[in-house]
Amino acid sequence: MATLLIVGAGIVHEVTHGGLTIGRDPDCDIVLESPEVSRRHATVAAAAGGFVISDESTNGVFVNGERVAGSHRLADGDVIRVGDAVLRFSAGSVTRAGTVIPSALSGESSALSESSIDGDTATMRVPQLRTPPPPSNVLLATLDVVEGNVPHGMRFRIERPVAQLGRGAASDVCLLDQSVSGAHATLMLRRGTWYLLDHSSANGTYVDGRRVDQCALPGPCDLRLGAVTLRFRPVALQGG
Q: Which of 26, 86, 113, 202 is the most buried (most CB within 10 A)?
């Protein structure tokens, strides 16, 4: 089934064929109590074998760092920002009757769509995969703690193409340091390249000492979230 995870809160909402509404109004399916969120901010619905998010707000909806113009077709692992809330979309495919089928079983083609993502010096294109993500328990990358108020030498295994980094209990990489925001950043693997997206964190996200909002990672490098430094090492996969 298709779902939306509220990062930092650990709350998962199913996206049914009837659609799902996001906003400040108590009648919305996902209620976000923030002045930056419109009463009815956005909708997510099944459409043409996939899922589409539509912006109905004043302050905008952002997918992977890019503001949505009207509507946007979602891909598995997309990171959505609504006001100051961050949500992660997990895709499925929809039959004509509206039944949700997990994407790993759907046999979708490997057609690609792209979403712009602004780096510090240029505009990058982050391919959005339409194929299922690698199976769980496949090691894609590691993060080793080298500095900060987190035990040095602690290793985090990254086994999914999208990983949330932050202090929140629902984070895939949970860093219990006060300098780290609850939903601080996201690691995303797209077509063999890792990308790092900062979620407007209070103390910033850095790659090899350079503060970034969104960027492609050059390979093994040092990531700093607040005062915590992690050594990132991607794993080369056969056929990747």
A: 86
Tokens representing 202?
A: 């209070």
CATH number of 3-92: 2.60.200.20
Residue 191 near residue 127, CB atoms below 8 Å: yes
Q: Which residues pair with 60 in a beta bridge?
A: none
DSSP string, 130-184: -SPPPPTT---EEEEEEESSS-TT-EEEE-SSEEEEESSTT-SEE---TTS-TT-
Q: Which long-range contacts (CB under 8 A, 24 or more apart) does 136-143 make?
A: 136/160, 138/237, 139/235, 140/189, 140/234, 140/235, 140/237, 141/187, 141/189, 141/194, 141/232, 141/233, 141/234, 141/235, 142/232, 142/233, 142/235, 143/173, 143/223, 143/230, 143/231, 143/232, 143/233
- Does the domain made of 141-234 have the CATH classification 3.40.50.2000? no
- Name the token pair of 69: 């113009």
Amino acid in the structure at residue 108:
E
pTM: 0.56
Residue 111: its pLDDT value, please?
30
Cα–Cα distance measured from residue 143 to residue 138, given in angstroms and rounded to the nearest whole number: 15
